[in-house]
Write a structure and sequence with these properties.
It is built from 10 helices and no strands. By secondary structure, the protein is mainly alpha-helical.
Length: about 200
Amino acid sequence: MKLAALLEERRPRRVDAQRNFDAILEAAAVAYAELGAGAGMDEIARRAGVGVATLYRNFPTRTALMEAVYLASVDELVTFGETIQGEDPWEALRAWLENFADFMKTKHALATVLTASSAVYMPAKEAIYGIAEPLFERALAASEVRPDLSADDVMRVIFAVTGGIYQDDQQRLRAVRVVLDGFRLSSPERAIEQPNALR
């Protein structure tokens, strides 16, 4: 099932209730990014401009709210991945991994809290890998990435790198780009793999 459909199942039918649902999701996403997975439900309700009872009517538990925020965020990430499938194989993979790293910057806490027992864990993972694997395979076929790697290797390393503590976003991005350089075949190796590439 598409992630958007999973999220839609949780969305109320009344228009006013939908507005509250969306406001809570947006406020929770910001609160989790700023305060981590421990952001309180009262604080999220305040930021959304709704009462705590309204929040709990839409999201009966803290986990239910986290799951919805994660689903919405992964759905945006997957949509981005779908738009770059036809681009240059390396640039598409690089753009995806940098975007994934940026996503994980704010969602790492949620991803570690929502374990395999969560109802959204496997659908979200399958959706992410459904984008990552074709992008990786295209780059591999174009001799742009090391042949001893798999898409799973690459995603796990990026996940680990984004979980570190950095001085600022620029330092995190530099770390990600150092890792990306390690994934890619060096120029001489690419020339050997593709002898006609420089002609």
